[in-house]
Amino acid sequence: MNNGPVTAVLYNANFPVCSFEISHYARYASAHDLPIRFDDLNSDAREQWGLDADTAARRLYVLHEGELTSGIPAFLVLWAQMPKYRWLVRFVGLPGVRQIASVLYDHLLAPLIYRWHLIRLRKRTT
After folding, report:
1. Strands across the sheet containing 61-64
2. 69-122, pLDDT tens digit by residue?
3. pLDDT number for residue 103
4. Are 69 and 80 in contact (CB under 8 A)?
5. Nearest 5°: phi and psi at 4?
6. Alpha carbon distance 49, 52 (integer Å)
7. Which has the closest alpha carbon to 112: 124, 123, 104, 122?
8. How far from the centroid of its chain's Cα atoms is residue 27's Cα?
9. For the whole model, what pTM was predicted?
10. Coil, helix or strand for 3?
């Protein structure tokens, strides 16, 4: 990741929810010439992250200036790189809001999306 973007995002391009959201961010970043790279966990790029496919599929990962974050902290890092979304950083970063968002993401949203991902994988193989 040398001489490249200072922020990289690892996401599941084969999963509709992730693909839809991250594609939106990627278009925004491209249109505004932001130094953000978007890596599909289903590609060879995942190997650079040091995460196996199952771990990578469980949540959003962002690498910013050498620091790896996941979940809500990863969203906060990503949004902070995009002027249009900095208001989300200020809001979700508020004490209480951040904790609630993290609990909802960690215990409800991410597991739900991951289970949906597994169901889609099983259907492909049958």
Report:
1. 36-40, 7-11, 61-64, 67-70
2. 999 999 999 999 999 999 999 999 999 999 999 999 999 999 999 999 889 888
3. 97
4. no
5. -120, -160
6. 9
7. 104
8. 15
9. 0.90
10. coil
